[in-house]
Amino acid sequence: MNRRQFLVVLGTSAALPALAWSETPDDTYEVIDVGSLDDFEEDKVYDQFRDQGFFIIRRADEVFALSAICTHKGCKVRSQTDQSFLCKCHQSRFDKDGRVLNGPAQIDLPRLPVKLSESRYVLVRVKKLSQ
């Protein structure tokens, strides 16, 4: 698939953020194949990757990954029915885009780099969690 075909696929299915990462091996990061783009057709927060440190979010024509790690003390946040996020450790709240609504967190939840493979699988680059 060439660049033009790739952009056409993105334009006709779902826009993935134009985030890239180095192809050079790096032991501090891993790439996680979260499944086919077709697995994320419904507009919602997909939380099955929370234990791996992120959420997949589909909103209209956009699919993106949002960190599930609170920027205050590193606890995992939980998605709420209104698509906001709550850290139960210290009650920080984030809106549906990961922006801080109330602290103690002062930094927004970051978006993670995402790619679409040639076979239309969504790949997310995450920092390896401490074991």
Strand percentage: 25-35%
What is the CA-CA span between the terminal residues?
A: 37 Å
Poorly predicted regions are 1-14
Main sheet: strand order? 2-3-4-9
Number of helices: 1
Sequence of secondary-structure elements: HEEEEEEEEEEE
Helix content: under 10%
Q: How many runs of DSSP E, i.e. beta strands?
A: 11
Q: Which whole number gives the mean pLDDT?
A: 81
Largest sheet: 4 strands, antiparallel
Gross geometry: globular
Give the C-alpha Rg.
15 Å
Structural classification: mainly beta
Defining key terms:
mainly beta
Description:
The protein is mainly β and 131 residues long. It has a domain at 3-69 and 109-127. Helix content is 8%, strand content 34%. It contains one helix and eleven strands. It has one helix at 3-12; strands spanning 29-36, 44-46, 54-59, 62-67, 78-79, 85-86, 93-94, 100-102, 111-112, 114-116, 121-127. Strands 2-3-4-9 form a four-stranded antiparallel sheet, with no helix packed on it. A four-stranded antiparallel sheet has the order 5-6-7-8, with no helix packed on it. Strands 1-11-10 form a three-stranded antiparallel sheet, with no helix packed on it. A hairpin with a 2-residue loop joins β3 (54-59) and β4 (62-67). The longest helix is centred in the first third of the chain and has 10 residues, at 3-12. The chain is globular. The protein starts with a helix and ends with a strand.
